[in-house]
Amino acid sequence: MTSVIEVSDLTKRFGSMTALDSISLTIPTDSITGLLGRNGAGKTTLMHVLTGQDFPTSGDARVFGKTPAENASVLQHIAFIKESQKYPDDFKPSHVFRSAPWFFENWDADFAAQLVEDFRLPTNRRIKKLSRGQLSAVGVIVGLASRAPLTFFDEPYLGLDAVARQIFYDRLLADYAEFPRTIVLSTHLIDEVANLLEHVVVIDQGRIILDAPAEELRGRAASIVGAKADIDAFVSRRRLDVLHRDELGSTASMLVDGVDEVVRLDALNSGLQLTPVSLQQLIVRRTGGALAQATDAGAPVAAAKDGVSRRARQGASR
Ligand SMILES: Nc1ncnc2c1ncn2[C@@H]1O[C@H](COP(=O)(O)OP(=O)(O)OP(=O)(O)O)[C@@H](O)[C@H]1O
């Protein structure tokens, strides 16, 4: 497996603020990688360094084997799509798409025209007058139709409605299958993109906390609900990493990381049921858990607790 991006011991500081803290990672060639993490984790900072818009404080970043900053031979192969993209005052989408071939040698004007239809984008309206979703669509179209060997999408969906986001995912996947390239996608809508991703990098407070093939992560976390004593014994025997636990009386629900085939079989033989959890649940719990939703592993116990307290309230009011 070759790598388009190789980052080694890279630190980026803004004054006393450390945005990236000694990170190392590689991003495989011709893959769709999700760059995930909470607000302020360091995702955009990393993309800025990799697209030559910022310098690392220390450490090394290589893109196509070279340092990206001020390196035209690297930058000409990169598309960086971000919400804050600035356009000249009088520009319309039609101007953007007409000038795109100057910057992107693989630009496909027919594909861009098809995407304009798909997103129902008014191409002759000034960019300043576009709605937020329409503005996002301009970026998404540039990112897709440029077919750059390395494309970064930094939260490209902001403002796109659910239908438009699905169009983006569908077109991305279909075009990627026909024209493989390296795509790095930063998003908070993890469940929506989970099936697109082949590789996942999670940053938390400037550090890499997960860097693995998506397939490996998908089966790795699970929830177990059952008798507390049984689960405790199982988790300790299998040395599973407990990311979250919730208890009610003698019943417990745990979200565990580190599940493999052996663990699954052992659970079955021990009369415990493992239910897979989504990539989003794993990442939410790995990056702090404060955002955990009612859909998490604690839900069955939480729901039971809710039922108990509701019954208690009803009992009290009788
Ligand atoms: N130019 C800057 N000067 C000072 N601090 C900065 C600068 N740019 C980024 N930071 C800080 O670095 C940290 C990482 O920011 P970054 O924009 O990379 O996060 P992010 O993961 O992209 O977040 P979000 O998901 O909210 O977009 C944040 O704490 C941010 O406030």
TrEMBL record:
ABC transporter domain mapped to chain residues: 5-230
Gene3D superfamilies found in the cross-reference section: P-loop containing nucleotide triphosphate hydrolases
PROSITE patterns reported in the protein's UniProt record: ABC_TRANSPORTER_2
One Gene Ontology molecular-function label: ATP binding
Keywords annotated in UniProt: ATP-binding, Nucleotide-binding, Transport
Entry keyword DNA repair: no
Key word ATP-binding present: yes
Stated name of the protein: ABC transporter ATP-binding protein
Protein species of origin: Gryllotalpicola protaetiae
